[in-house]
Design brief:
Belongs to the glycosyl hydrolase 67 family. InterPro entries: A-glucoronidase_C_sf, GH, Glyco_hydro_67_aGlcAse, Glyco_hydro_67_aGlcAse_N, Glyco_hydro_67_C, Glyco_hydro_67_cat, Hex-like_dom2. It comes from Flavobacterium procerum. Strands 7-8-9-10-11-12-13-14 form an eight-stranded parallel beta barrel. The chain has a six-stranded mixed β-sheet with strand order 2-1-3-5-4-6. The relative contact order is 0.08. It folds into three domains: about 140 residues, Chitobiase/beta-hexosaminidase domain 2-like (Chitobiase, domain 2, 2-Layer Sandwich), CATH 3.30.379.10; about 300 residues, TIM Barrel, CATH 3.20.20; about 140 residues, Alpha-d-glucuronidase, C-terminal Domain (Alpha-Beta Complex), CATH 3.90.1330.10. α14 packs across α15 and α15 crosses α16. Helices cover about 40% and strands about 10% of the residues. The protein has 22 helices and 16 strands. The protein has about 725 residues and is of the alpha/beta class. It binds beta-D-glucopyranuronic acid.
């Protein structure tokens, strides 16, 4: 009996580790010819330098080699003999090697790395280098990825630099450890035990981020608590910053605009008030004394009830610039969010952020970057790109994606978000003519901005597997990869993640990659096809709620967004409606305005169409909509079928987890389909077309469902 129990414990812990290890599984390389290729190419490792970062790089190499190849090559401090792997920053390389790498060194920036096979003094060597130690660490992780994904190392010749400066996670973590819109447990940050207790998890978090090039983290919720800025908490923040530093990760905090009142005993937080200005300067000095490389502040102001400069008759520029002055002496930045809309503004909510921010172009201090959500409403399964992208040539704009799946099935649904991210980044704003993609706005190349960045609202919590769903790990991974290179194809991301997380078996990769690539369209289909948006149930946003119409703010009601009536469905943002289309460049405005050219996937975002409107495939809008809902359900079934065939490639724990989660996803996809179609059918008055399954329950039943404890709704 004891034996069985012990066995259970051991097998539980080794299996559970797999989930915990994310994409850094370092599985044994199965292909024997590859193993000998690897072993012949790095008989020993030469590590140059001894900073903490370099030690981390060395440790990573040892772990990687031991796990993947079964032994650790000899570690040396000088280059003798053949087939070394030489690891160290540029300043530690001999002048001959530097000369060899001359043309690559000029190509990379401070965080960029080189991985190159060279022939040096007639001997073959592989060099991993960069201008800084953190760049070397990035190089090491990328090198290990080559081995993890079973690629050849014969002729390595890589020089790769991140295209954006700030690659940052936004944690919506509260000080009581709840996570707003968090579906993977509680916050990682154990404020109670900090600063004295350093959880291994902090180190593992930093390592995972460094492995994908994330270099910043905002520890606290945008709906901010001023207490984080008190000495009691800053001491804890400092402890985290010390853990993250060698991994190249800077710490940032959210600044509650009313902090001078709440913790500073001032009577006002007016950004033009001399005492307020001084208070923030002192606060910045205090923070930088503890954390010299503190990144800066992220601010949500005058948005959804958060305090801001408008409380004092000032504007966003006044607020952002005041904070920018406070952190400028320390090279800090202010990430000022453009997620604003007001219940007092009768205008289409989709137009409000643009209307408010665009006129501020060129008015922000140079260490301010305006953080814009990918779409004009709110992290929906599909939104056209935000019209602010490309429309503020004199202002650096950073992208805000949501990695946590607030509106995409929480951490229960398998949805591969890099596909969504790619769609946005590839969108052409036409603001400087054809080819003015969102990616070019973000990486600064369109308008030559110096300050650039991408933020992702984290999906990480203290669940054993970090993200709730094993496949939600890829959304963290893919976010990091796209922050590094916003031009990366999401299929490559899926491929490398699957290999690093599960298996290099081609049969497994091919089929599972297919369902990942399709998963985003599936969720759009079973939740909000053809441009529908924001019809989730209210507050927690769990499940469908297209009928909700009684909330105090009109633009919080799903009925505001779909506008279904007996004549049809959709939000008319064309010239005959709210005219939101004119916030885009002329070419794009025309495209969306005209039904002939507007992509059908965006129809109901821009147009109110009759139930009988003929779609390109000849179906009426009603039939087309119903068939899309059904297609979404079918796609989930296909995902289940594919997954059920993978048992031989995946450990039983993760196999079963995903299997159970897909069952829930299937149930919920049907719930979405049935609830939405029954509700919209009241207006269309039409039968469901052939091919669409009959609803399993009545509309009244779906409307009666309540979820008072749905997660993430703080
Ligand atoms: C919405 C979330 C809310 C956030 C808000 C934001 O529902 O919890 O506070 O975005 O981004 O989507 O500020």
């Amino acid at each position: 009996m004891r034996f069985v129990f012990l066995f259970f414990l051991i097998s539980f812990s080794t299996l559970a580790q797999k989930d915990y290890k994310l994409w850094l599984q370092y599985n044994k390389v199965a292909n024997s010819s590859l193993v000998s290729e690897y072993k012949n190419n790095f008989k020993s490792i030469v590590v140059l330098g001894n900073s903490e970062t370099i030690k981390i790089a060395e440790k990573e190499l040892k772990t990687g080699f031991l796990d993947m190849l079964g032994n650790i090559p000899e570690i040396k401090s000088d280059i003798k003999g053949e087939c070394n792997l030489i690891v160290g920053s540029q300043s530690n390389l001999s002048s001959q090697i530097k000369t060899e790498l001359q043309s690559d060194l000029v190509k990379i920036n401070d965080e960029g790395f080189i991985i190159k096979s060279i022939s040096f003094k007639n001997k073959r060597q592989i060099i991993i280098t960069g201008k800084t130690d953190v760049a070397v660490l990035y190089g090491v992780f990328n090198f290990l990825k080559i081995v993890q994904t079973n690629k050849s190392v014969q002729n390595l010749n890589i020089a790769d630099s991140p295209k954006t400066n700030i690659r940052i996670l936004n944690h919506w973590d509260n000080l009581d450890r709840t996570v707003e819109r968090g579906y993977a447990g509680f916050s990682l940050w154990n404020w109670q035990k900090l600063p004295d207790f350093i959880d291994q998890r902090y180190i593992d978090y930093a390592r995972a981020n460094a492995s994908i090039g994330i270099n910043g983290t905002v520890l606290t919720n945008v709906n901010a608590n001023a207490l984080i800025l008190t000495p009691q908490y800053l001491e804890k923040v400092e402890a985290l910053a010390n853990v993250f530093r060698p991994y190249g990760i800077k710490v940032y905090l959210t600044a509650r605009f009313s902090a001078p009142i709440e913790i500073g005993n001032l009577k006002t937080a007016d950004p033009k008030d001399a005492q307020v200005i001084q208070w923030w300067k002192n606060k910045a000095t205090e923070i930088y004394k503890r954390i010299p490389d503190f990144g800066g502040f992220l601010v949500k102001a005058n948005s959804e009830g958060q305090p801001g400069p408008q409380n004092y008759g000032r504007n966003h520029v006044d607020g952002a610039n005041m904070l920018a002055d406070a952190v400028a002496p320390f090279s800090g930045v202010i990430m000022w969010r453009a997620f604003v809309y007001s219940e007092h503004d009768a205008n289409d909510r989709a137009k409000q952020a643009y209307a408010e921010f665009q006129p501020y172009d060129g008015k922000f201090k140079e260490n301010v970057i305006v953080q814009v959500k990918n779409g004009a409403i709110d992290f929906q399964p599909r939104e056209p790109f935000h019209p602010l992208f490309g429309a503020m040539p004199k202002t650096p704009l950073m992208m805000e994606f949501q990695i946590t799946q607030e509106y995409l099935g929480f951490s229960t649904h398998l949805v591969f978000l890099p596909k969504l991210f790619q769609e946005v980044l590839e969108s052409d704003t036409y603001q400087k003519g054809k080819g003015s993609t969102v990616a070019k706005v973000i990486d600064g190349t369109l308008y030559q901005n110096k300050l650039t960045g991408i933020a992702g609202v984290a999906n990480i919590g203290n669940d054993l597997n970090w993200t709730g769903h094993p496949f939600a790990q890829v959304n963290w991974y893919g976010f990091g990869r796209l922050a590094w290179n916003p031009y990366l194809d999401s299929e490559i991301i899926a491929d490398e993640w699957l290999r690093s997380t599960f298996s290099n078996d081609e049969n497994f990769i091919k089929t599972v990659k297919n369902i990942m690539m399709e998963s985003r369209e599936a969720v759009v289909n079973y939740m909000t096809p053809l441009g529908l948006h924001h019809i989730m149930d209210t507050g927690h946003h769990y499940g469908p709620g297209p009928w909700v119409s009684d909330l105090s703010r009109p633009e919080w009601n799903p009925t505001y967004y779909h506008k279904a009536d007996k004549n049809g469905i959709g939000f008319d943002r064309s010239k005959s409606g709210t005219n939101a289309v004119t916030q885009y460049a002329t070419e794009v405005a025309k495209l969306f305005d005209n039904l002939e050219t507007c992509p059908e996937k965006d129809f109901l975002w821009f147009h109110h169409l009759s139930w009988d409107y003929k779609l390109k495939n000849g179906q009426t809008l009603w039939n087309g909509l119903a068939l899309k809902y059904q297609e979404g359900v079918n796609q989930v079934r296909e995902m289940q079928d594919v997954w059920n065939e993978t048992e031989k490639y995946v450990d039983s724990e993760r196999f079963n987890e995903v299997k159970m989660l897909l069952e829930i996803q299937h149930k919920e996809a049907k719930w979405w389909r049935d609830a939405c179609l029954l509700y919209f059918q009241q207006f269309s008055g039409k039968e469901l077309p052939a091919g669409v399954e009959k609803p399993t329950q009545t509309l009244e039943y779906f409307k009666s469902l309540k979820f008072p404890f749905a997660p993430g709704n703080g």
